[in-house]
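Appendix B, example 12.
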Amino acid sequence: MSLEENKAIILNLYEADNKKDLTILDEVISPDFFDPTFKLQGPEGYKQFETMFFRGFPDWHETIEDIIAEGDRVWIRFTGTGTHKNEWRGLAPTGKKVTFRGVQIWRIVDGKVVSKDSILDLLDALKQLGVIKYTEKAKVFFTENEP
């Protein structure tokens, strides 16, 4: 597959994700799919994760900031936003809106996504939700030393 075809697959995934349409997963996610970040396997594992996430953040939306394709991989840098309106991973709804950034590396073989690895700023998201609180020392480290 060409680099442009690989990018199109991932762009379509993000577009469907923003519409909360998981039907595309059966078409493009390989039965051998694995996500080492969240330990997801196959299209069903991916669907279960997304369903749980969308339940917790029904207005979730991801904006692609950058996309790069090389060989069988597509890199996405994105910003995600959503409001925590329902339980998510055992956390009662906070009603708080979160914004976080991440990078995802997708691997595509013969038109099917076989893996996705994510680097996410979950620490900041958990702070925004009030799950964690900075100590006084951390407040100085994370806020006073910003450029």
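The beta strands are 29-35, 40-41, 61-70, 73-83, 97-109, 112-120. The helical segments are 3-18, 24-28, 42-56, 122-129, 136-144.
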